[in-house]
Amino acid sequence: MASPNPSVGCVLVSTGGQTIGTGHTQRAGGPHAEIMALRDAEARGHTVAGATAYVTLEPCSHHGRTGPCCDALIAAGIGKVVGSIADPNPLVSGGGFARLRAAGVAVEVGPGAAEARELNIGFFSRMIRKMPWVRLKVAASLDGKTGLHNGVSQWITSEAARTDGHAWRARAGAILTGVGTVLEDNPRLDVRLVETTRQPHLVVVDSQLQTPPDAQLFRAGRSVWIYAAARNDDKAAALEARGATVNYLPNAQGKVDLGAMLQDLARREINELHVESGHKLNGSLIREGLVDEMLVYLAPKLIGSGLDMASFALGNGPLTSLADALPLEFRSVDKLGPDLRIVARVAGRDSF
Q1: Count of helices and strands (H, E) across the chain
Q2: Alpha-carbon dihedral 214, 215, 221, 224, rounded to 10 degrees
Q3: Catalytic annotation on 269?
Q4: How far is residue 37 from each of residues 6, 13, 54, 67, 182, measured CA to CA in Å?
Q5: CB proximity list for 101: less than 8 A, separation 6 or greater
Q6: CA distance 272 to 219
Q7: Cα–Cα distance between 200 and 184 in angstroms, integer?
Q8: Threshold 0.85, pTM exceeds
Q9: What is the pLDDT of residue 153?
Q10: Distance between alpha carbon 106 and the CA centroid of its chain, in Å?
Q11: Burial, 174: exposed, middle or buried (Cβ in 10 Å; 0-12, 13-18, 19+)?
């Protein structure tokens, strides 16, 4: 998992058309894809002089956690670089390609650009919009119920859907929930059902600092960031003693300023934010236009009277015109065990 760096792959092909090295970007602070591919070629006993490097993203040209990859390619004698898309990071943004060309390396840009951008939609969002890509997860019955009328919701969907949900948690930089979910369910909200090299950070929207210091969410050994609106030094101290970081971002209504929170998470290098919360926070995020994508699991069950998935969607009462409906675009529909997984994106949201 490369986050907060983009997911990048590199393939080195000799002048004779033979694949001589491959690599992908390692965990933050580790070598990038180009370095891994050069090392792989060396380990195989291949020379890379004159070879072509195919990369998902423009080779970096700045000193960050590692040195510039474009310099490493130049020093190795690479003859051509085929990059899918320019790096949106302002510290690079064409500089890598420019440095390669200045050193006499042929550069081609464009093949696989759409796929590379989609692979790193969160990184592009953070670099361009200064906001993480927000994905909201919901599990519901076929008639759109997220739970029984008494609040019971475990388990509407199957084990296959729950395992897949953990895979989506694992790819995110952070998981977001609300204090209502913490108080009602006392969830861990970590990754347990799939293998992962790191636990995503946890973000809790908690205006009044009601999160219990003994909540299970502190058990996962990861950063916990709590966003509050009302200052309470005693409660904050108790939470910080458990390792939490308390941030105060009130809006004019005395709630947490969700837009400012997302900007702060981007500054904390969160590319993708995975939301698993109740209808109040879900509704607030959607009403404020902060949700980019829906991850919906539908079980082949009819519940009838219960908690309605649609009740959080727009939140200001029944719509009077279909023109006011939130337009979505289906990105994928897949069957997982007995359930369906639907990924639906807010129309036009990825046009930044």
Answers
A1: 10, 16
A2: -110
A3: no
A4: 16, 10, 10, 15, 44
A5: 107
A6: 22
A7: 22
A8: yes
A9: 67
A10: 33
A11: buried
Tokens of 232: 């309470």
Distance from chain centroid for Cα 90 = 20
Digit-coded pLDDT (tens) for 161-202: 999 999 999 999 999 999 999 999 999 999 999 999 899 999
Residue listed under structure tokens 């009277």: 305
Q: Judge contact between 38 and 48, C-beta under 8 A.
A: yes
Strand order across the 106-109 sheet: 19-24, 9-13, 52-55, 80-83, 106-109
Report the alpha-carbon distance of residue 342 to residue 168 in Å, rounded: 13
Tell me if residue 31 falls in helix, strand or coil. Answer: coil
DSSP string, 79-134: -EEEESS----TTTTTHHHHHHHHTT-EEEE-TTHHHHHHHTHHHHHHHHTSSPEE
pLDDT tens string 53-105: 999 999 998 777 777 899 999 999 999 999 999 999 998 989 999 999 999 99
Rounded to 5°, angle at Cα 207 from 202 and 211? 55
Cis upstream peptide for 4 (omega within 30°) = yes
298 and 342 Cβ atoms separated by less than 8 Å: yes
- Contact between residue 150 and residue 289 where contact means Cβ atoms under 8 Å apart: no
Per-residue pLDDT reduced to its tens digit, 311-349: 655 555 677 788 888 899 999 999 999 999 999 999 999
Q: Among all chains, which residue has been given the structure tokens 């390692």?
A: 26
Element (H, E) at 162: helix 159-171
34, 272, 276, 293: the active-site residue:
34
Residues 6 or more apart in contact with residue 180 via CB below 8 angstroms? 277, 278, 280, 281
CA distance 111 to 84: 5
Indicate whether 1 pLDDT > 90.
no
